[in-house]
TrEMBL record:
Entry protein name: Multicopper oxidase CueO
Subunit structure: Monomer.
PANTHER family the UniProt entry points to: BILIRUBIN OXIDASE, CUPREDOXIN SUPERFAMILY PROTEIN
Keyword check for Ubl conjugation: no
Annotated keywords: Metal-binding, Oxidoreductase
Pfam families noted in UniProt: Cu-oxidase_2, Cu-oxidase_3
Taxonomic superkingdom: Bacteria
Plastocyanin-like domain ranges (all copies): 55-115, 151-192, 379-494
Family matches, as Gene3D superfamilies: Cupredoxins - blue copper proteins
Species per Swiss-Prot/TrEMBL record: Microtetraspora fusca
Amino acid sequence: ALALAGCGRLGGETSGRTLTSALRLPAPFTVPLPVPPVARPVRPGHYELAQRAAKVEIIPGTRTEVWGFDGVFPGPTLDLRRGSQAVVRVRNELSVPTSTHLHGGVTPADSDGYPTDLVVAAGRGFRPVGGHSHGGMRIDPDLWKFHPGARDYVYPLDQRAATLWYHDHRMDFTGPQVWRGLAGFLLVRDDEDDALPLPKGDRDIPLMICDRAFDEDGAFRYPSRDPSLLVRAGVDDAYMEGVQGDVVLVNGAPWPELEVAAVRYRLRLLNASNARRYRLELRPGGRFVQVGSDAGLLAAPVEHDAVTIAPAERFDVVVDFSAYPVGTRVTLVNTLDGGTARNVMAFRVARKAADDSAIPARLSRPGRLHRSDAVTTRVFDFRKSGEWAGAWTINGRPFTPGTPLARPRLGTVELWRLASDFHHPVHVHLAHFQVLTRNGKAPAATDGGWKDTVDLRPYEVVEVLVRFEGYRGRYMMHCHNLEHEDMAMMADIDVV
Ligand code: C2O
Ligand code: CU
């Protein structure tokens, strides 16, 4: 087992079977969709977010303690512009250390949110448990950093307009800490995106989709991480598959509904779930026109009847509600699951309205990488290890802070061949990539554009072309199933 001591018992369920008990859940589509507040700068280019516990009403009539940026979940949206640097001061007022990562950000290594580079609430005096050990290994004590009270993260945002998100990244505890609410959007905007006639303003909506389970008192229910339970339950315990809840939240509300006009809307879909994948479809029918992927606009729009979205992926889509008669309830459903995880949210088409938006046939010039651009080929095998007490490993090795699995050169493109034994959404920090092949064939229609996370499915081999741009330093790659990440499916990547 990994460095699990001191994590506390958060309910007794194992995952997959993490169910809400004895709590009256709302009927689907009765709670209005919230839109996260937009963060206001404390002075130009400077933002402050306080991580704190707060009781909020998620299930009507019940209070749930969230650990939120500014006490809200999702955290405030940082709505920023390409090339204008933002300095975000994160103050930790929680009982646990935190590290904040900007997912999809082209960020200097020091601000990337390395898992042992922690902010600790003032006066807490946290020290790592178990003598700096992780998975039975010693971690170089120099790798632990403790910022008392607060620290600044510097985001130059010298990157294309895109839907990014920030979330906790603490060593071994990212799963439980994100589950409790430590996640929010960061939208990068630029002139190119602004100049397009895509839907804007309150017709451009970020949607953070994630599943949760609740205890009878309303608290978020997360499986016990008591290592003895894990060992007894064995490696096939559902915890190993990642934690899934039975209540689907969008922007922090259960199965919400949004009233829309019969016009086009731009929906920035983010799967912020710890482990659940969704296959999103519209009922009674309809299409998503994808205009962007994880790291910005596509070259041209792509239509999908269904969008499969793995943890941490984003799909920037346009849905045209003029296709439905006024009065229609259009539901967003998850056809990968039955039961309570089938419904996601609904849009009620309330009225007709003028629509001056359009989806141009050409969106951007993202550029295309070719196999011949790669200076090196590397293979990364994402697999459960027999050796490390069933830990999840990359190339047979559990996360070993300070010892990189690869040292790519800044300014080059590499071909990475990703192989797996399970669903592993693979995420690379700093560098964006393009999917070249899936199982030796052309990529899926939903693999297009620049990405930072790819949905690697069981026994697949996916080839991606990764471009290292921006900064040198210690970054990482990992599985974005957060329980897999916490169980060591992560590696340092040193950009040299
Ligand atoms: Cu969204 Cu390293 O994470
Ligand atoms: Cu995984």
